[in-house]
């Protein structure tokens, strides 16, 4: 009976976490609808709001996914399944945004985006990444599950489990593979492309997650590990900001 109660409690916490992530996606989606209606004639402001909401959604959901993965570290199948599912959700809902500074810089280098628009999008990603920490801290402070403790979002839990050169290689390689796939999948049908990218991201997280977390997104890394940047800035700057941009 005790075991059944414990299992039921775990299931309730998991369902609550899933509901929280889906609520974030829904609210961000509603905000995007309003933004598209209100800012059709202001492209810079429109792009800023959409990029901000996309980064906020991505970071908040990833905070919750990371929390769930920590509960069953010996059984990664369930977290990886969730990563695949929510990558599909992000791919379907965040069309037209990148939520990744590397993606913005790649578009600028390829001539697909003006420097002014790139700067606006990068600023939106920075604010969205930092804002997500306070949003998730406020949500966790509600104590919806036994794992929701606001202090967790502000603590430093160093994900780097290898020496610096290996960590740089892991993040740079993951970023290179991902952005190469983005370019090569342009001609693939959108529905199939989303599944291919979701499978690729899930594989990269599986392969590199135990080494560096396999973030390969400077904005997401800042949101997840902001306190670590404060305590070991140079190491985290090289691994999570510089390395992904080398591709």
UniProtKB/TrEMBL annotation:
It catalyses: glycerol(in) = glycerol(out); H2O2(out) = H2O2(in); H2O(in) = H2O(out). InterPro entries: AQP11/12_channel (IPR051883), Aquaporin-like (IPR023271), Aquaporin_11 (IPR023266), Aquaporin_11/12 (IPR016697). Its main location: membrane. It is found in: Cell membrane; Cytoplasmic vesicle membrane; Endoplasmic reticulum membrane. It is a multi-pass membrane protein. The gene is AQP11. Keywords: Cell membrane, Cytoplasmic vesicle, Disulfide bond, Endoplasmic reticulum, Membrane, Transmembrane, Transmembrane helix, Transport. Channel protein that facilitates the transport of water, glycerol and hydrogen peroxide across membrane of cell or organelles guaranteeing intracellular homeostasis in several organes like liver, kidney and brain. In situation of stress, participates in endoplasmic reticulum (ER) homeostasis by regulating redox homeostasis through the transport of hydrogen peroxide across the endoplasmic reticulum membrane thereby regulating the oxidative stress through the NADPH oxidase 2 pathway. The chain crosses the membrane at residues 17-35, 47-66, 78-97, 197-216. Homodimer; disulfide-linked. Homotetramer. Can also form homomultimer. This is Aquaporin-11. GO terms for cellular component: cytoplasmic vesicle membrane; endoplasmic reticulum membrane; plasma membrane. The lineage of its organism: Eukaryota, Metazoa, Chordata, Craniata, Vertebrata. GO terms for molecular function: channel activity. Belongs to the MIP/aquaporin (TC 1.A.8) family. AQP11/AQP12 subfamily.
């Amino acid at each position: 009976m005790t075991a059944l109660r414990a299992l039921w409690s775990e299931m309730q916490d998991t369902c609550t976490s899933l509901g929280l992530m889906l609520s974030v996606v829904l609210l961000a989606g509603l905000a995007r609808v309003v933004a598209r209606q209100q800012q059709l004639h202001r492209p810079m402001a429109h792009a800023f709001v959409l990029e901000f909401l996309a980064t906020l959604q991505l970071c908040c959901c990833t905070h919750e996914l990371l929390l769930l993965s920590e509960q069953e570290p010996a059984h990664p199948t369930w977290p990886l399944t969730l990563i695949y599912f929510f990558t599909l959700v992000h791919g379907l809902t965040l069309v037209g945004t990148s939520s990744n500074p590397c993606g913005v810089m790649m578009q600028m280098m390829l001539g697909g985006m003006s420097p002014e628009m790139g700067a606006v999008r990068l600023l939106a990603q920075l604010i969205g990444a930092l804002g997500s920490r306070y949003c998730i801290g406020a949500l966790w402070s509600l104590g919806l599950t036994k794992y929701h403790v606001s202090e967790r979002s502000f603590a430093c839990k160093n994900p780097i489990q290898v020496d610096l050169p290996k960590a740089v290689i892991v993040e740079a390689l993951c970023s290179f593979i991902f952005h190469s796939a983005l370019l090569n999948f342009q001609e693939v049908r959108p529905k199939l492309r989303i599944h291919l990218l979701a499978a690729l991201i899930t594989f990269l997280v599986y392969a590199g997650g135990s080494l560096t977390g396999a973030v390969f997104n400077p904005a997401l890394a800042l949101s997840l590990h902001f306190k670590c940047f404060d305590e070991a800035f140079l190491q985290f700057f090289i691994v999570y900001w510089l390395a992904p941009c080398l591709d």
